[in-house]
Specification:
single chain, nine-stranded mixed beta sheet, Lyase, Ornithine Decarboxylase, Chain A, domain 1, binds pyridoxal-5'-phosphate, 25% strand, 21 strands, TIM Barrel, alpha/beta, 421 residues, 29% helix
Length: 421
């Protein structure tokens, strides 16, 4: 459920008319709903009720400072994957002991900055990384709290580009050989082993892969404890999927996911961490765009809008579906006709939808791409020298621009011309 509904014939973001935001900031732009972000966080919080837990929002899905601040105020931790994300989380007011550092290629510089600034735990993905972290921690005279990210060799049954838990993926340490790595970690002066980490992929629409992976983590916990490690924290990653198509069957609910966690690892007495990104931010955002032209082609008609693949890359990168709806509610019984919905970028891949049934639309009409709050703005680029588009946060009947659109001059002046030219 989200808070983008038609009211009096106009799409609203909570209590604000989307058309009013468009008039104030111009299109295209992203809008996020505070109530939806809050609701999704709360669903996870309730799903893990009764277990000691921390929900670490995966900020790679949406890293706007205002969103992070909101998450921090709700009591969330943050899962970061780079120094930039670490520093942004700190800038949003998150204390170090609520920040988890994930990622397959952490540099020594990133390790040092996080150890000095405060960190809850590093999720370590390889032996060389473990050695580097040990060396950096020792040079600072501290111990780095770690979980090893294990690769459980489980098929997440999702898009190949976002599956991470099979042995052929670059992520984690094979679960079969990780006991050795834990033994080595346990002997390192700069390392404090606190737990186990697993993350098998994104946009999972079934619970079974989670159940398989968490069961393996539970078995490993017993083994490692028998080996003398104080395993007190289990980080079970993110990945729960969202319904991108209203007409399709809905993925499992957070409460059902919580039941799987309870059933598989609940008896171990560990603190549970999860790292949801998409489920918290995905349906909490829309992308609003204007129709530039309606173009009649041979055998098909094109709706050319002012948003493009540089603003929202998911359709061209992952063949992803986004529901696209007019901001002015179509009349009941309005006739639908198939349209290819495309952006202005000079690539055939700049196509949002093919032969999508749409109600009548005209130039300057507003359309909204639903479920665009995750992996939308964060993946945007300035390809075709199109400035990054603004982000807006709605809260009840208020809205605020939380990232302004840069001017063309600002974009141009970031480049410099060398003296010899
Ligand atoms: C991407 C990622 C997440 C979040 O995944 P979602 O599908 O957005 O929930 C969590 N943890 C790690 C390590 C990730 O790489």
């Amino acid at each position: 459920m989200d808070h983008f509904l038609y009211r009096d014939g106009v799409l609203h973001a909570e209590d604000v008319r989307v058309s009013d935001i468009a008039a104030a900031v111009g299109t295209p732009f992203y809008v996020y709903s505070t109530a939806t972000l809050t609701r999704h966080f709360t669903l996870f919080d309730e799903a893990l009720g009764g277990m000691d837990h921390l929900i670490c929002f995966a900020m790679k899905s949406n890293s706007n400072l205002a969103v992070l601040k909101l998450m921090g105020e709700l009591g969330a931790g943050i899962d970061v994957v780079s120094m930039g994300e670490y520093l942004k989380a700190k800038a949003a007011g998150l204390p170090g002991d609520r920040i988890v550092f994930s990622g397959v290629g952490k540099t020594r510089e990133e390790m040092r900055v996080a150890l000095e600034g405060g960190i809850r735990q590093f999720n370590v993905e390889s032996e060389p990384e473990l050695e580097a972290l040990n060396a950096v921690a020792m040079s600072l005279g501290v111990k780095a709290p770690i979980a090893l990210r294990v690769n459980p060799d489980v098929d997440a049954k999702t898009h190949a580009k976002i599956a991470t838990g099979k042995s052929e993926n670059k992520f984690g340490i094979p679960i079969a050989t990780c006991r050795d790595v834990y033994r080595r970690a346990g002997q390192m002066e700069g390392i404090d082993v606190v737990g186990i980490d697993v993350h098998i992929g994104s946009q999972l629409t079934q619970l079974e892969p989670f159940e398989l992976a968490f069961t393996k983590v539970a078995e490993l916990t017993e083994l490692l404890r028998a080996d003398g490690h104080d395993i007190r924290r289990l980080d079970l990653g993110g990945g729960l999927g969202i319904p991108y198509e209203r007409s399709n069957e809905a993925p499992p609910l957070p409460v059902e996911y919580g039941e799987v966690i309870r059933k598989t690892v609940g008896h171990l007495g560990c603190e549970i961490e999860i790292e949801p990104g998409r489920l918290i931010s995905g349906n909490a955002g829309i992308l609003v765009s204007s129709v530039i032209y309606l173009k009649h082609g041979e055998g098909r008609d094109f709706l050319i809008v002012d948003a493009a693949m540089n603003d929202l890359v998911r359709p061209s990168m992952y063949d992803a579906h986004h529901d696209i709806v007019p901001v002015i509610e179509p009349l009941a019984g309005a006739e639908q006709a198939p349209l290819d919905i495309v952006g202005p970028v000079c690539e055939t891949g700049d196509t949002f939808a093919k032969a999508r049934d749409m109600p009548p639309l005209r130039e300057d009409d507003l359309v909204a791409f639903r479920s665009a709050g995750a992996y939308g703005a964060v993946m945007a680029s300035e390809y075709n020298s199109r400035p990054l588009i603004p982000e807006v946060l709605v809260h009840g009947d208020q809205f605020a621009v939380i990232r302004a659109r840069p001017t063309y001059d600002e974009m141009i002046n970031r480049d410099t011309i060398p003296v010899w030219l």
